[in-house]
From TrEMBL:
<dbReference type="InterPro" id="IPR004653">
    <property type="entry name" value="DusA"/>
</dbReference>
<keyword id="KW-0560">Oxidoreductase</keyword>
<feature type="binding site">
    <location>
        <begin position="292"/>
        <end position="293"/>
    </location>
    <ligand>
        <name>FMN</name>
    </ligand>
</feature>
<feature type="binding site">
    <location>
        <begin position="269"/>
        <end position="271"/>
    </location>
    <ligand>
        <name>FMN</name>
    </ligand>
</feature>
<dbReference type="GO" id="GO:0000049">
    <property type="term" value="F:tRNA binding"/>
</dbReference>
<keyword id="KW-0819">tRNA processing</keyword>
<dbReference type="Pfam" id="PF01207">
    <property type="entry name" value="Dus"/>
</dbReference>
<dbReference type="InterPro" id="IPR001269">
    <property type="entry name" value="DUS_fam"/>
</dbReference>
<keyword id="KW-0694">RNA-binding</keyword>
<protein>
    <recommendedName>
        <fullName>tRNA-dihydrouridine synthase</fullName>
        <ecNumber>1.3.1.-</ecNumber>
    </recommendedName>
</protein>
<feature type="active site" description="Proton donor">
    <location>
        <position position="156"/>
    </location>
</feature>
<comment type="similarity">
    <text>Belongs to the dus family.</text>
</comment>
<dbReference type="GO" id="GO:0017150">
    <property type="term" value="F:tRNA dihydrouridine synthase activity"/>
</dbReference>
<feature type="binding site">
    <location>
        <begin position="71"/>
        <end position="73"/>
    </location>
    <ligand>
        <name>FMN</name>
    </ligand>
</feature>
<feature type="binding site">
    <location>
        <position position="196"/>
    </location>
    <ligand>
        <name>FMN</name>
    </ligand>
</feature>
<feature type="domain" description="DUS-like FMN-binding">
    <location>
        <begin position="69"/>
        <end position="316"/>
    </location>
</feature>
<comment type="function">
    <text>Catalyzes the synthesis of dihydrouridine, a modified base found in the D-loop of most tRNAs.</text>
</comment>
Length: 365
């Protein structure tokens, strides 16, 4: 492991945003006007991110990922992303993680796995895997679907993924391979690439080890954007759900990365449950914020404030009832289109914890 003797957390001089939120939860407004601060966020993001020349035009069509919705298995599917985009025009959306092997072996049925409506842009494809040839082929096959970024999963602690699959968060233990994988992915696409990871795995949870991972991946590949889930993963003894709450959040690791890798871009993830908290993180210097389950369970309360409060855009004026009407029109248009009554109404209406349009109506009210 590379010894990063110059890297230290310097916690004594650090004020993590979560302490601000817990002590003074009402100090931040939900309706922040489009001012110099908001403009500066967008400008500074593009200055910080190093994009390939051929990527610049495609990436600059959208505002930067100051706010994104985390990839969540069986949750951030095509239907949810359609609903999310009706609510927010600027939040970046992620697919569920797709195994590279699935993409390669389903070449005759790719629309089912990779297809989406153009209205979902900006949208990121997250892939996972541990075989370079499959990662290369999967990325190549995905090019036809015009995703705005390819993200590599190095953070999932599920036993099916990190255990039997030997990828996900387990890959953090092999940063050299991740660097090679990112080089292969980048070589087979013309869009930016990124990595989503934790701050550590089991006993490999020191700040030096995290720096070793970031340094090697960014040195061995064109990767310049890392999404950091600010808690480590425990591979044995606890469930994926417990892995989202039991290991303590260490935001100081994230903010130390901003200081120690000034040429890279980092998005913070983990424990952020509202636009108020997202804005607090951005004010503390975060390059971007990723929100997971809050954006899924409470899309109106969360995504409904993103465009105005995070991006400073004028309100669209769309109402919850209008969103429901548009989503019902979408549902009517896709029911049964894949044959064998798939997708069915239960699949289309499964947003949040609800499985019917009646519940969906209650959900928004």
């Amino acid at each position: 492991m590379v010894k990063f003797s110059a890297y230290s957390l310097m916690i004594s001089s650090f004020t993590p945003f979560h302490s601000i939120i817990l002590k003074t939860p009402r100090r931040f407004s939900r309706n922040i006007p489009f001012n110099h601060s908001t403009k500066s966020r967008v400008a500074s993001y593009y200055q910080n991110v190093e994009l390939h020349t051929e990527d610049m035009m495609g990436a600059s069509r959208y505002l930067p990922p100051l706010f994104s919705v985390a990839p969540m298995m069986e949750w951030t599917d095509n239907h949810y992303r359609t609903l999310a985009r009706l609510i927010s025009k600027h939040a970046w959306l992620y697919t569920e993680m797709l195994a590279a092997e699935t993409i390669v072996y389903q070449q005759g049925n790719l629309d089912k796995f990779l297809g989406y409506s153009p209205e979902q842009h900006p949208v990121v494809l997250q892939i996972g895997g541990s075989k370079l040839e499959n990662l290369a082929k999967a990325t190549e096959l995905a090019n036809a679907y015009n995703y705005d970024e390819i993200n590599f999963n190095c953070g999932c602690p599920s036993p099916k993924v990190a255990g039997h699959g030997c990828f996900g968060v387990r890959l953090m233990l092999d940063p050299k391979f991740v660097g090679e994988a990112m080089s292969v992915i980048a070589a087979n696409t013309n869009v930016p690439v990124s990595v989503k990871c934790r701050i550590g795995v089991d006993d490999h949870d020191s700040y030096n080890e995290l720096c070793d991972f970031i340094y090697k991946v960014s040195s061995l590949s064109p990767t310049r954007h890392f999404i950091i889930h600010s808690r480590k993963a425990l591979l044995n003894g606890i469930s994926p759900a417990d892995n989202r709450r039991i290991p303590p959040l260490k935001y100081e690791f994230y903010y130390a990365l901003l200081r120690d890798f000034p040429d890279l871009t980092f998005t913070i993830n983990g424990g952020i449950n509202s636009v108020v908290e997202a804005n607090a993180a951005l004010r503390e210097g975060a390059h971007g914020v990723m929100v997971g389950r809050a954006a899924y369970h409470y899309p109106w309360q969360t995504l409904g404030h993103v465009d105005t409060a995070i991006y400073g855009a004028p309100s669209s004026g769309i109402t919850r009832r209008e969103i429901l009407q548009r989503y019902q029109e979408y549902g009517d248009s896709v029911l049964g289109k894949d044959g064998n009554n798939r997708p069915n109404i239960r699949e289309v209406a499964k947003v949040g914890s609800f499985v019917s349009f009646t519940s969906l109506l209650h959900f928004f009210c």
